[in-house]
Amino acid sequence: MPSHVPVLFRETLAALEVEQGGRHVLDGTFGGGGHTRGILEAAPDNRVTAFDCDPEAQARAEALQAEFGDRLHFVSANFDELGDYVQASLDGVLFDFGLSSFHYDLPDRGFSFRFDGPADMRLDTRRGRTAADFLENAAEQELVKAIRDYGEEPRWKPVLRAIVSARGTGKLQRTASLAEVVESAAAARHQKASRIHPATRTFQGVRIAINDELGVIERALPQAFEVLRPGGILAVISFHSLEDRIVKRYFRRLAGQPEHGRDNRPQQERLVQAELLTRRPIEAGDEEIELNPRSRSAKLRVLRKLPL
């Protein structure tokens, strides 16, 4: 077992039915390889095709390949490109949308303000603009979407003004100084006792924006369902409401159910392509939350593809 166990680890492996053996599962978010290892260890004839756009994941995948050989195939690409690489009829697809500890614990990646480092925040360091470049140059509406919509920051207006005012000063280039800029604007008297740092929401929103995380999810889910065989299982772990809303609505659409409260289409217009295996999302129990507080917000949703 890996030293870092992913959230809802046992529940996820059970949902994917990997102990049956002979399963070919796509792990769309390899990360530290925890889920992939669990799938491969569950039965000697299980196979995994794993994706990760982080170049640093390649070395971690190679270490697992040394143990499991050709039972593990690793693709260095984002999971919204899976349709370009996978045509097989898979038994399962897994997405875990949470960042791995490797991202948060490395100062030079810029995901956390616990350490001072360059404000990068890119999941794939080979492409795209850094958080610093985004904050320095993005149009105001892009910043609003990142801070207000993706970060869900209630004090987004003063945060926006503070960031724009800090342009050209160098304060947006490093995580520590960026956090100070945001904290000075976001911290209000009634928020002093909050358990989260005042910069947390803005950092989240900027990260989502520069990596197009929600767009990636929207593009990847249909591709994942397409490569499943009839009877195959799609399991998705999300960590905040924006991700979970996309997953929930897509799953309900596949199950022929109303996607939201305003979806009033008659039943004969709905196509039932899947069975929901989780009417409500699976969440971490008290024991797991105590061991790993990050699991508190995790939600696992699972469906099974039906024969046409």
Distance between the termini: 38 Å
Q: Which sheet architecture does the biggest sheet show?
A: 7 strands, mixed
Helical fraction: 40-55%
Low-pLDDT windows of residues: none
Q: Average the pLDDT over all residues and give the rounded result.
A: 91
Oligomerization = single chain
Structural class by secondary-structure content = alpha/beta
Trace the largest sheet across and list its strands.
3-2-1-4-5-7-6
Number of domains: 2
Q: Looking at CATH, which topology of the largest domain would you report?
A: Rossmann fold
Strand residue content: 5-15%
CATH-assigned homologous superfamily of the largest domain: Vaccinia Virus protein VP39
- The beta-strand count equals 7
What is the CATH class of the largest domain? Alpha Beta
SSE succession: HEHEHEHEHHHHHHHEHEHE
Supply Rg: 20 Å
Features:
308 residues, 2 domains, DNA polymerase, domain 1, single chain, Rossmann fold, seven-stranded mixed beta sheet, 13 helices, alpha/beta
Summarize this structure briefly.
With 308 residues, this protein is of the alpha/beta class. It is built from 13 helices and seven strands.
